[in-house]
């Protein structure tokens, strides 16, 4: 097999030899290290789908940590290995060294723990994308660049493209899938983020949702609560009381949330795990960015995702978001007619 790489990454002699002799049917054991939260687990799903397509006979193990168990894609792998991070140092090291006779190791985490696990795990070939290029020579046979300007799920697929694999587009997440013709006239808002500074203030969200409820009367406007105590929708209670088309949806488990999201018209949110779930179900999204680089979380292979941000990094205003929402809804659902009915006096 040819190594399909020129100047876009790192490849040592062992990696080149392994690729030149690669027969996919002979690969039996694959270890994928991915230690990440909800959103990044969603972005990992296309990689695992395509990994199975490329190596249909391999036993695939996903290695993660106990902290990140929500949304682990156990339906796409044969085994989930949870690293012991609570025992003694010896027990933790033994947990890291648990696997032997691995054909292919992918480090998709680049954390101190994943680097140590990569170092301690024997494998015929090791692939990763470290933030520090100097780690390539120490840990990996094949290294790729981690771009800030392409959707994370697509960057992961570069590992397989090196082997000549042709991923499916639009990406396949093996999740419930949004169908435009069946979408309910429901706009979902998720006003939270793992880092509070990445989201608009509650006052800004309250003003946005109230004006959207007035100007987009043909839609239900639903605030989705999160799993943390501070991710309550109580701050919107007065708005919901004033508008018949505003409601607060309580916390859902993933099994219920995925099809519910897929049946919605659009999600409005910042850089959150819930937005990654919407991307995974191909549900239209309007992303709001001002701290995070938007391109890494903005798929461009389908027309249903838009991003609202300013070139100078200023926080997008209410009218910026409403304008983006109007354009997205009218582009995706032209049969519904004009989406927006501006208020007589805008504030």
TrEMBL record:
KW Phosphoprotein (keyword) present: no
SUPFAM superfamilies: UDP-Glycosyltransferase/glycogen phosphorylase
Keywords per UniProt: Glycosyltransferase, Transferase
Pfam family, one: Glyco_transf_9
CDD domains tied to this protein: GT9_LPS_heptosyltransferase
Domain of life according to the entry: Bacteria
UniProt xrefs under InterPro entries: Glyco_trans_9, LPS_LOS_Heptosyltrfase
PANTHER family registered for this protein in UniProt: LIPOPOLYSACCHARIDE HEPTOSYLTRANSFERASE 1, TETRAACYLDISACCHARIDE 4'-KINASE-RELATED
Name of the protein this chain belongs to: Glycosyltransferase family 9 protein
Origin species: Billgrantia ethanolica
């Amino acid at each position: 097999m040819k190594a399909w790489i020129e100047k876009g990454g790192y490849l040592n002699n062992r990696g080149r030899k392994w690729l030149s002799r690669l027969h996919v049917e002979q690969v039996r054991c694959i270890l994928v290290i991915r230690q990440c939260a909800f959103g990044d687990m969603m972005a990992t799903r296309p990689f695992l789908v395509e990994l199975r397509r490329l190596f249909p006979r391999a036993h695939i193990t996903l290695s993660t940590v106990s902290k990140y168990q929500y949304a682990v894609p156990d339906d796409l792998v044969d085994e989930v290995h949870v690293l012991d991070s609570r025992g003694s140092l010896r027990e933790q090291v033994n947990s890291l060294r648990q696997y032997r006779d691995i054909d292919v190791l992918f480090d998709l985490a680049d954390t101190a723990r994943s680097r140590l696990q990569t170092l301690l795990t024997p494998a015929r070939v090791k692939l990763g994308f470290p933030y520090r290029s100097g780690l390539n020579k120490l840990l990996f046979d094949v290294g790729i660049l981690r771009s800030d300007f392409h959707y994370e799920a697509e960057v992961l697929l570069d590992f397989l493209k090196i082997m000549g694999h042709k991923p499916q587009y639009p990406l396949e997440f093996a999740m419930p899938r949004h169908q435009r013709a069946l979408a309910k006239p429901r706009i979902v808002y998720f006003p939270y983020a793992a880092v509070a500074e990445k989201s608009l203030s509650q006052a800004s969200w309250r003003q946005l949702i109230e004006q959207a409820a007035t100007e987009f009367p043909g839609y239900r406007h639903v605030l989705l609560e999160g799993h943390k105590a501070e991710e309550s929708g109580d701050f919107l209670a007065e708005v919901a009381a004033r508008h018949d088309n505003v409601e607060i949806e309580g916390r859902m488990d993933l099994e219920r949330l995925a099809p519910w999201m897929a049946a919605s018209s659009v999600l409005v949110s910042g850089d959150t795990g819930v937005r990654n779930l919407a991307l995974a179900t191909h549900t239209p999204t309007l992303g709001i960015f001002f701290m995070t680089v938007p391109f890494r979380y903005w798929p461009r292979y389908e027309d249903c995702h838009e991003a609202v941000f300013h070139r100078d990094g200023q926080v997008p205003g209410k009218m910026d978001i409403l304008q983006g929402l109007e354009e997205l809804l009218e582009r995706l659902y032209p049969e519904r007619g004009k989406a927006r009915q501006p208020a007589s006096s805008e504030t």
